[in-house]
Amino acid sequence: MVIKEEILHSVGASIKNYKPSESIFTEGSYPGYYYQIIKGEVKLNNFNEDGKESIQTILEDGHSIGESLLFIDKPYPVNAVALTNCEVLKLPKYIFLDLLKLYPEISQDINVFMSERLYYGLIMSQNLASQSPAAKLKTLMDYLKSFQEEQAPYSFMIPLTRQQMAGLTGLCVETAIRAIKVMERDKLLQIRNRKILY
């Protein structure tokens, strides 16, 4: 959780509900609100000139959406789209910026959160240069597992679908599925009831 919900409510944040595939904001629009997910999953994506979707990240309960752009006067470079039914707290930008002055510890939490995202972005951009689909998927799984206390083999259930993993690594779904099967054969992961344990 980036900011405690009660603090956001106390300064006038409203709750908005989104259905699957509904846009929260669109590429090219300017940030006017701080968004924080109470419940649900949101993907940040964009499309290339051929219309192929590229998923930048998937956010879930407690995560903020696009907060880094509230500090600069630039348009969103991505879309934010609900993957599931979502309940999202929405706070006007000017109130959010005042809130950070009132609560310096929130600024620290936001810095940590943005640093984790930047780290992920750097790891994934290095990884995308790799030619091996298995190496791309392993880097993604290593990153996801890095936030867990338990690091034993097969102790972490990957919380993404094969399609989401493909989108996050720039692979087509069929290639991701084949690579996951190779990784299972090589004992890098296990598959139980269609779930990936890493």
From TrEMBL:
Keyword field contains Disulfide bond: no
A cellular component term, taken from the record's GO annotations: cytosol
Pfam family, one: cNMP_binding
An example Gene Ontology molecular-function term: DNA-binding transcription factor activity
Record's keyword annotation contains DNA-binding: yes
SUPFAM superfamilies recorded: cAMP-binding domain-like, Winged helix' DNA-binding domain
Cyclic nucleotide-binding domain residues: 16-100
Alphabetical list of InterPro entries matching this protein: cNMP-bd_dom, cNMP-bd_dom_sf, Env_Response_Regulators, HTH_CRP, RmlC-like_jellyroll, WH-like_DNA-bd_sf, WH_DNA-bd_sf
Signal peptide (UniProt feature, chain positions): none
Domain named HTH crp-type: residues: 130-198
Matches recorded under Gene3D superfamilies: Jelly Rolls (2.60.120.10), Winged helix-like DNA-binding domain superfamily/Winged helix DNA-binding domain (1.10.10.10)
Listed CDD domains: CAP_ED
Keywords of this entry: DNA-binding, Transcription, Transcription regulation
Protein name: Crp/Fnr family transcriptional regulator
Organism: Chryseobacterium gambrini
